[in-house]
Amino acid sequence: MKGDNVIDNKLETISNLFEKKEIRSIWDSEKEEYFFSVIDVISALTDSKIPKRYWSDLKRKLTEEGSELYENLVRLKLKAQDGKMRDTDTLDTKGILRLIESVPSSKAEPFKLWLANLGNIQSKF
To answer: Higher-confidence residue: 95 or 68?
Structure first.
């Protein structure tokens, strides 16, 4: 799936809400894994007015530090606010947890709990 820009019938798009912020996500049934929009997670954690810029700066910093997080990014088409499908940086649950650790935020712990709860629901199926 890495680098694949086409969502086929093996992927099912869902939306999740975290503290009134939408976190776009997609389920990969082959890998049995969720992929989450990085920009949406940044927005929920930071309340940044320009989460794309925050992510761009963080990507640069993480790359300079030798973080492997950038290498784990998967570009997937997710529905944007304008209704169009747009390429979006996504990470799986493990990658999102690493991202959360890289963002100073008082919302980090509640977000981790939300992800853990999501994992518990997922494992029941």
So the answer is: 95
